[in-house]
Amino acid sequence: MAILGAINPMLSVGLDGDNAWRLADYIKRGGYSALRRILGEQIPQGDVINEVKKSVLRGRGGAGFPTGLKWSFMPRSFPGDKYVVCNSDEGEPGTFKDRDILRYNPHSVIEGMAIAAYAMGAARGYNYIHGEVWEIYQRFEEALDEARSAGLLGTNILGSGFDFELFAHHGYGAYICGEETALLESIEGKKGQPRFKPPFPASFGLYGKPTTINNTETFASIPYIINLGGEHYLEAGKPNNGGTKLFSVSGHVNRPGNYEIPLGTSFATLLEMAGGMRAGRKLKGCIPGGSSAPVVPGATMMDCTMDYDSISKAGSMLGSGAVIVMDETTCMVKALERLSYFYYEESCGQCTPCREGTSWLYKVVHRIECGKGRADDLDLLSSVTTNIMGRTICALGDAASMPVQSFTKHYRDEFAYHIEHRKCLVPVDVQRAGSGFFTATV
Amino acid sequence: MLTSESLKRIDREIAKYPADQKQSAVMAALAIAQEEQGWLSSEAIEFVAGYLGMAPIAAYEVATFYNMYDLKPVGKYKLSVCTNLPCMLTGGVDAGEYLKQKLGIGYNETTPDGLITLKESECMGACGDAPVMIVNNRRMCSWMNPEQIDKLLAELK
User: Fold this and answer.
1) Which of B70-94 are b and which e, b meaning 16 or more Cβ less than 10 Å from the residue's Cβ?
2) A442, pLDDT greater than 60
């Protein structure tokens, strides 16, 4: 089964069975009816965009930017080539929802992209799929073939005169390509280094043409919005946070996996759906929106609801909806060390503050973890983060800094203990038991 | 340099992009070359550049930028273990240590018989299945506890 649990779901309805991803199954559960209606009734482009605006669908990739507004930036009467691009380069640690959408419901993404292309006057699209999920890429290629054979992609779709070609592009292991302009560079066959903005992709995107890039889950939600109506979709969530969303729950829970819940559902409910904490241990901290989001202490997290506004009030970000759960067996210094290494490894090297700064962040956290920390290291870390943030072309520098700032703020005692006593506050055998790898030691 | 089967696959990739944007197929073409030859030699990279009508340096930039290209020979099987935070919390680091012990090699090393190369890798986007690892960039292996790892090693011959 694709999604382990759901409350009032849309995206994950009817996905049981091995053939749920096939075109025939998708059509049986109402698939392509939204595209059919739009093309059949020749609904004006502006009306489609308005429906998406009314839904208050916010981008599901991490930034939470209103999708309808983004679509309205496209110069849809511009006569030349225009592109719609799907960002399935899901590499933010903790996030694995798009993989399941493409695995079990790929036609919802294809239909959503076709509707987007119609609304913005684009004739060509690409879906950029994360390098490490080859099987998913292959399946998406098969789904594309099905859609082409059924006349749902290609020229004169369903006899409407609307043309839309869609192709899959396979990534090859670079986190930075999840940044939309790096992703465009990558499709163009270059190193994935982000572009300076402005100009924004809506005016200068793929091959220099107007382009709109949305996340997989965003596109997948479009058919449901058209079918339900924007207002009903909005009501499924809470004001300013329309609809349901997939949350990827990982770490120290009994049933890690994807869960679809209305935005505004309490974190406690989500945690319960994920089987609760492993071995009944205490929640120490939670990263609610993927590794780039600031960590939130357990007690604060238990009072949050899962939506953009509540998580932002708690000092973090809903991001991609990747919920990394850490119990009391976690050494927060080691956790931060691993995240800092990730950003150091994945910095594209273009901007000096990020290239040099992520290296400093990792080296300093590493030496604290190794028992070689110095008394002023926490001040040094703070200074490095403020010298990175806001001084780079893309958000990776900020993404590397926010975990450092939040971990050292909320778990300052643990870092101080490490520096003073040259060892973990959480004994190593407790950490090892927490991982559950060697079940005999738990 | 490459078999006609590989060239046919590359041609299919080129067809996905506008006629004047053949360079867009470089990532796929390098992946196909690597799949056929096991790794990317300078000759292979230059061949791909020539085939797509791009400067060799531009193809080198791509080959050196993306993590999944191997610029040195690797074993028959490349085993990439995710140790990023969500995997680490549920045994990713332990799984790596277990593999090192079993194979008698460290990360970025190959067993003396040339069978397995061990790599530490970044997030694969499958954290719900942690610990995860990938065989030869293609096959994702989920929930890799000691028994699962033993089973996988017995199978990789």
Assistant:
1) beeebbebbbbbbbbbbbbbbbbbb
2) no
- Nearest residue on chain B to A93, alpha-carbon basis: B123
Q: Does B50 touch chain A (CB under 8 A)?
A: no
CB contact under 8 A, B31 and A172: yes
CA distance B78 to chain A (A): 13
Looking at CA atoms only, how far is residue B86 from chain A in angstroms? 5
Q: Which of A176, A284, A337, A338 is best to mutate for the B interface (most B CBs within 10 A)? A: A338
When pLDDT is cut at 50, 70 and 90, the band that residue A441 belongs to is very low
In the block, residue with structure tokens 């033993």? B150
* Check whether domain B77-156 has CATH 3.40.30.10, yes or no: yes
Give the tens place of pLDDT for each residue, A385-417: 999 999 999 999 999 999 999 999 999 999 999
For residue A29, is pLDDT > 70? yes
Among the partner-chain residues B86, B93, B95, the one whose CB lies closest to the CB of A93 is B86
Pairing mode, strands A165-170 and A124-129: parallel
Start and end residues for every CATH 1.10.10 domain found in chain B = 4-65
Say if domain B4-65 classifies as CATH 3.30.160.
no
The whole-angstrom separation of Cα B136 and Cα B138 is 5
CA distance B97 to chain A (A): 11
